[in-house]
Amino acid sequence: MAVLMTNSSRKTVVALAVVVVAAAALLASSVSAAITCGQVGSSLAPCIPYATGKATALPASCCTGVRNLNSAARTSSDRQAACRCLKTLANSVKSVNMGTVATIPGKCGVSVGFPISMSTDCNKVS
């Protein structure tokens, strides 16, 4: 069965489709705005040799990652997610020295607003 559409009906359908696509894109961008563990891991990967004592100097790429991650974590929810991911990452890396890890943001000139420690309650990070 064929449906006949007038020019104005077609324009209405196209306009509605555009609105639906725009709304979906907006929704998707707000959902994807949260910090992911993938972002945390890739941002901080250059820091691992320093955090494990395999490098004596803090690489510039580590500080770049720390700064980028700090800039990306704009909301309390982002910072809490980054905190949880950091703890997970620290647990997965053998020989990580959490004392050294805790000094990295300061050495990079970044204030993260919460202590870098395995005992930090990430749910209380604001």
UniProtKB/TrEMBL annotation:
One of its GO terms (molecular function) is lipid binding. It comes from the Eukaryota. The keyword Disulfide bond applies. Keywords: Disulfide bond, Lipid-binding, Signal, Transport. Residues 1-33 form the signal peptide. It holds the Pfam family Tryp_alpha_amyl. Residues 37-122 form the Bifunctional inhibitor/plant lipid transfer protein/seed storage helical domain. GO terms for biological process: lipid transport. Belongs to the plant LTP family. Plant non-specific lipid-transfer proteins transfer phospholipids as well as galactolipids across membranes. May play a role in wax or cutin deposition in the cell walls of expanding epidermal cells and certain secretory tissues. PANTHER family: NON-SPECIFIC LIPID-TRANSFER PROTEIN 2-RELATED (PTHR33076). This is Non-specific lipid-transfer protein. It comes from Miscanthus lutarioriparius.
